[in-house]
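Q: Convert this sequence to structure tokens.
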Amino acid sequence: MKIILTLVFLLGMATFSFAAQGVINHPSPYDVTTTADRLENLLQKKGMTLFNRIAHSAAAKKVGVDIRPTELLIFGNPKVGSPLMQCSQGIAIDLPQKALIWEDESGKTFL
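A:
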């Protein structure tokens, strides 16, 4: 129980820290699909569960809307997240984790 409470505290502090900085965009040398593929492989190697991968640009195209390549990966680890939610159910608003991979106006990819 002490470990779980420590994790809840640390996650809360990390959330506060990131909230002060806002969203962090990291450039990728690869295109959107390759970046998303590489991230998906890395997450799986680290034992994370990929809950969903949403190709926003492909969905937009189906309804006649053109947007630059954009993909969202939703992932987590129920072995870690579930005990955290057991201690503090409100933390579920931040779980599972998400990563957005997108292309800007100049064709540069960001994660």
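The chain has a mean pLDDT of 86.
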